[in-house]
Amino acid sequence: MAGINKDRENPFKHNWFVSSIWLLVVCYVLYTFNAMDLSWGRINEGFGHAGNLLGRMIPPNFSRWSLLLSGLVESLEIAVISSICGIFISLFLGLFAARNMMPSWISSPVRGVIALCRTFHPVIIAILFVKSVGFGALAGILTLIVASIGFIAKLFAEAIEEISLKQVEAIRATGAGFTSIILFSVMPQVFARFIGFSTYQLDSNLRNSTMVGIVGAGGLGGTLFSAFQRFDYDFVAAILIIIIALIMFGEFLSNIVRRIFR
Fold this sequence. Notes:
80% of the residues lie in helices and 0% in strands. It is an all-alpha fold. The radius of gyration is 26 Å and the shape is globular.
């Protein structure tokens, strides 16, 4: 018995490899703090500047309400149009990317396209479209369509790959065609998740529609950027309040849609 206990490995034995990894992580964090000149002094100074900025933003200036309203409407239109188009395209791309429904010579290239759409941040894509089609809402719509495909098509494909193939085989045994198989065996299993993904993407596009305008792709972002350039901070506060209201509206709308299709 003593020999058996002696041979047992000590559960509290020190792991030098893990300790070395943690030591390297700590050293790297300290190095990055030093390389980027991060210090408590700079942070305290930043809090002081933030207090001055906040003081200049209060009270918000809503006198130019027509400019706010036009930017809000344009951001909302960009988000809705890009979400509808992006979700519609993603339904087909997600199906073609599902490896349990399509052969590899179809699913692999489609997965590559989806990954390519997900590679770049929406601001970078917006810059490319602004250079291609010019300033305005069209660049923003195209940007968010690409961003929607990169995110939601991947989720659609993964949801389809997790379905039970027993229902697919049962429908196929009746002699049904490919379209009937998708409608009566695949969609009933993933429809609720599709609704959840779609509402989340609409919410995401509402946020991004205000961000891409900073580089000239339409919406409230352009108005916000111009206000910052003019040091018009009370108007900046009004724009930020409108953006918050837009996001809250999107959250409210998403909750309603989820309740309907629950």
